[in-house]
């Protein structure tokens, strides 16, 4: 190895490391792209939170524009966004479906009963607003993992064919709705209305 290369190699490695760390330092982890973006919803068969006999599949999330909201009563940010989501449903007819999971049903976290989960959910929604048409119960969080969910709340904007068109990590507030979600939502609603007219 030449003398110049021995001196240059550590400098090159240092510059590469600085660039790599710089990207990590100045990137927003909430803006990462979902691997599910642009793809159909992964397959699932999951019960309704309140009626274990009612089983949902991806087919239930087709035919309309829907926002699938991953949430739980243990999530403080989820509680903060509930009134705003409820206002979007009431004022603009936005269709929200909850994908609910509870950490305390996992034996590693606790021993909460399903009845207690249902009572806690009902109590929170009665206090803060209920934006959901229905709640899919992600019993052991497998489906959240299939979607690439890292926490809650997370939101998946789904078109009428059941494809994920937008993924948002964090709460939906007025700023996020106006600048990030509403433009895509309005486009999908226009596509949906056009498809209905042409059918």
From TrEMBL:
Matches recorded under SUPFAM superfamilies: Thioredoxin-like
Any Pfam family matching the protein: Redoxin
Record keywords: Cytochrome c-type biogenesis, Disulfide bond, Membrane, Redox-active center, Transmembrane, Transmembrane helix
Ranges for domain Thioredoxin: 35-190
Primary residence: other
Record-linked InterPro entries: Redoxin, Thioredoxin-like_sf, Thioredoxin_CS, Thioredoxin_domain, Thioredoxin_ResA/DsbE_sf
PANTHER family: THIOL:DISULFIDE INTERCHANGE PROTEIN DSBE
Protein name per Swiss-Prot or TrEMBL: Redoxin family protein
Organism: Alteromonas arenosi
